[in-house]
Each structure stands twice: as structure tokens, then as C-alpha cells.
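Journal club prep — side note

Before the paper discussion, L.F. wants everyone to see what a predicted structure for a comparable chain looks like in C-alpha cell form. Sequence:
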Amino acid sequence: MASACVLVVEDDTDIREGLLDTLTDNGYQSVGAANGRDALASLRTGGALPCMILLDIMMPVMDGTAFREEQLRDPNLAEIPVILLSAHRDVAERAKTLKVAAYLEKPLNVKDLLDLAHEYC
């Protein structure tokens, strides 16, 4: 069962910390990961699963696409809703290809972020 925790997978420390602070300030627990590999490790060893994952596409070590492919292969993780984050203009198409619940364009609109957190958490 999902908890009211959001996993933020973002390599840019300032953006990741800003998202974590915003979520926390609005009543959501949140944890961060700097890349897809760290996020998978956290999901597979961290106990309670998050209610949603905020996922950047472009990251070193393991990018968002590779993370999503691994997530979908794992039946314990496949059903966690993913919200794609990107500054690239093809984010809508990438979201469709990766079969994510929603996407947010960078720079993020805080209200849109909180609306999605409310919907999935």
C-alpha cells in the first residue's frame, strides 16, 4: 500500500531540494534520489512505497527512461504513478511513450505539482 510520501528523482540538487521543501511545506513526506539507480535502490529496500514518483528524464547514471523501464518490469513497483519532469519541448510525447500518469514542464508550476500530489496521495 502506498503511503503519503513522494519520491523525487532529480539530479539537480537545487531543484530536488526545492521540490522536497515545497512538498514538505504542504504536508507531504518526501524523499529524494539523484538518479534512477538510487531511486530503484530506495524503492526496493525502503519499506513503504511512495504514493507517487516525480521523475526527471535527463539524469546521469540512470536516466528517467531507463528507470521507468525497470520500474515497469518490477510488479511491486509498476503501479506507482509517475509524474514526468522535463524542460524539453517533447515532454508530452515522452510522457505518452513512457506511459506515465502525468507530466510537468520545467519550470514547474507549484499549484500543478500540488494538485497532482493531492490526486495521487
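L.F.'s comment for the group: The chain has one domain: 5-120. Keep this in mind when we get to the figures.
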